[in-house]
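subagent[fold] <- orchestrator: predict structure for attached chain, return tokens only, no commentary.
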Amino acid sequence: MTAATVSRWARRYVIVSALFLVVWQGGALVGFPQRTEVLLGIFGFVLHMVFGKAYSLIPTYFDRQLTVARAPMVQFPLTVVGTGCLVGESRGIGPNWIGTVGAILWGVGVAVFLGALLWTIRDNLTGRESATGESNADRRPIDRLANGFVPVALGYLAFGSYETIAIYTGLPALFDGYFPRVSHLLAAGTAAMLIFALGFRLLPRFLVASPPKALVTVILPAGAFGPALLAGYLGGGRWFQLGAVTQATAVVGYALTYSILFARSDRRRVGFYGVLAGAGSGVFGVALGLSFAFGHSTSSLVLTHFRLNVLGFLGLTIIGVAYQFYPPAVGALRGASDRTALGSIGSLTGGLLLQVVGLIGQLASILQVGEVLTFIGAMMYAYVIVAVFHAR
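subagent[fold] -> orchestrator:
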């Protein structure tokens, strides 16, 4: 009953995540401000996918079963409505207290999520019990190492969510109330860290290949420390530079590791190309981050950095993994297929590249074409996901 309940609610998180992606890309096309893009992209699209899959993956990888089976159901309206309220406040929609309500709802929803997962793995927080069978005994050292960094990602989620509440309610803030610190805690600290930690368990099995252990042992600690330095010292100075270098090491190392896995594998499923495109986008994203740390930034470059990392690195990786969990070919609606899924990846990737060119080169027409393409890609992705779930 627990597995069926978790699976059913996971699908609802995935659908809502896809819808947030569509709204985000539509909003980017009509000129939503960056604060709204951050809320739709990170809080809406990325983290709701994280919530949905984490409820099943984390207990499984820690050799446990989710203790509170109804936690996904309780959390769902809290974080969905909370995100909606925060988005409304960023657009000046609704009463002046809507942002406060949204932050509180978000925080309560995250507390449910964290409480359920941490209670489930409370006697195995290091992840030494990894549920890795004897047939995969050679993977056990990396599995245990990766498990150990999952609580780090959950910690970033707690800190980032509290900081969000503090900003909107007036509670004592951990930092100075500068919202980009929150986006780094949640995007780099939670989402990227989970891509590294859970990814080193998922991706080698998907591709039936083994990652270089030496790279994994560098990537995971770098991915754990980088976001803390970035969030804490965002804006300049040696510690900020160290954070940028550390995070870049993690992302570039991950991209290299996945490229090696991809090259070693003889499998070529559609989702793998999305993960590959995401890894490449991440490299460009952290390269821009390094330029900010050691050079200068402009508003257009900051937006480029955000889109490369959230739509590119996190987004395309999420979409690629989603297509692996939910194969497009089983979709029951007309046009849902691997070809459509590949088209969504191509449209999102190509559109993102055009956006980068348009933003950096100040070429409005190219930027707009790129935004149209990513909007189309987002709609194609959402359609495929709905088609797959309709078949089920």
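orchestrator: received. Logging for downstream: Residues 215 and 253 are 6 Å apart (CA to CA). The radius of gyration is 20 Å.
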